[in-house]
Amino acid sequence: MEPDHEPRLEAWERRTDYALTGLAVLYLVVYAVQVLATRPGQAWWWWLDAALWTAWAVFVVDYAVRISLARRKLRFIVRHPLDLLVVAAPFFRFLRLLRLVAAISVLGRVLRDDFRGRVGSYLIVSISLLSVVAALGVFEAERDAPEASILTFGDALWWVLTTITTVGYGDLSPVTTEGRLVAAGLMLAGIAVLGTVTAAIATWFLEQVGARDASEALAAAPRADPADLRHAELLAELRDLRRRLDVLESAPDRPTESAPG
Fold it and tell me: Per residue in 211-220, pLDDT tens?
């Protein structure tokens, strides 16, 4: 058995991928409603918070099961640091948003193995989730802070756009510790996203150039064969003519045969 092969863990992940993805998306919706439509202390806020805690509990159970199924548990923990942060998130207020990283990791597992499909789909899903989560997080952290400049969800989305693209106009910036931690993570993610996009575009151009060269070579191949054949025929004809000339040149030197008497 290969050292990296985890049959029981892989079987569990295949059975739970789609369910966890749906739960993560539901978590995002509930969290968005809680941030945008309620305030702490309101009745609906408590109900929504209870739903978020329930979803987090499911993620904890999934993480615990995956550790128990892993043959090399320490290696599993080291290789899945974001999953550990997802579990520890409620104990650190600014990390609770990382529970949504589960959605990205699960979607990465269910995407096709095709390189283009994996990169393109994963990139779109990752940027979308990252942008929405960061906007919700910074808006929640900044909206009631003194001297805050991010006062609406629209401001938060604009701030996310300028930050993740590394433009950084500076017209909006977080002033709270939680908001700045979200900004730091978004900046690092923005660099990673730009690197991935650049690599994907470069790969696409190389594939296009390679495909064009291959098509040109394929189109030229049928024309090359008749030319080669004609060249060979001409060489054969030249050799035949040379042989005939040699015969004619040597004919006078031959002795004349006498006629019968």
Answer: 666 666 656 5
